[in-house]
Specification:
Helix content is 25%, strand content 39%. The chain is of the alpha+beta class. The strands form two sheets. An eight-stranded mixed sheet has the order 2-3-4-1-5-8-7-6.
Length: 212
């Protein structure tokens, strides 16, 4: 497992205003990622080092947003003011994860502005909806060169997460590989009795470390 990306829900100003604010903090432009037709959402992407990326996502006025757990979570988080929503780990083989969680992954896709159709399978968004400290899991069905982190060179890296919750909950759900997927990233587990999920994220930029 590898920490693939972080999801940040657009605030009241919408996708463009939210990414403008984050661009000002991080000193780097976001790229148009396109729409998720199966989930009723769309995103903008900031490629990071270490084959990771940050997405800002907003819900669309689309029937899929009411049916898909991912769309429901985006809507709920945006209506609460926006902010950190979820984290996602990637795997090479989804079979073991499906067996552990006890259900099948669902297909996802997103057509980039250049016309390329990104495809993947994902699982765990329903669990993430209930307990946001838990990641959802993606298995990419594309060549590695098309991964969103490769859309543009990046000199920004993810260095630390502050999470409300407990690592025991994470390892009990997906096993120890989910904990080790965080690799060199520093993780501070805080406030076990608070609403679980990402509290803040620290990025290393050319202008110094930035915590959001």
């Amino acid at each position: 497992m590898h920490l693939d990306h972080l999801s940040f829900a657009a605030g009241p100003g919408g996708l463009s205003a939210t990414t403008d604010d984050l661009e000002g903090l991080l000193g780097a432009p976001f790229l148009d990622g396109g729409a998720h037709p199966r989930f009723g959402t769309r995103n903008m992407i900031l490629p990071l080092q270490n084959r990771q990326y940050l997405e800002v996502v907003e819900v669309l006025d689309h029937p899929a947003a009411d049916k898909a757990a991912f769309g429901q979570v985006v809507r709920q988080r945006s209506e609460a003011g926006g902010g950190w929503m979820a984290w996602c780990v990637s795997v090479e083989d989804m079979t073991a994860v499906e067996h552990r969680i006890g259900r099948h992954a669902v297909p996802g896709n997103r057509r980039r502005p250049d016309g390329f159709n990104l495809q993947w399978r994902q699982i765990g968004t329903s669990s993430m909806k209930v307990d946001p400290q838990l990641p959802y899991v993606t298995c990419w069905d594309i060549d590695a060169s098309e991964h969103p982190s490769q859309m543009a060179p990046s000199d920004i890296s993810l260095v630390a997460l502050q999470m409300a919750g407990a690592p025991e909950r994470l390892s009990g759900w997906l096993g120890e590989p989910a904990v080790t997927a965080l690799e060199q990233i520093t993780v501070e587990w805080v406030a076990p009795n608070a609403q679980p999920g990402i509290m803040s994220v620290t990025f290393r930029t050319p202008n110094g470390d930035v915590t959001i």
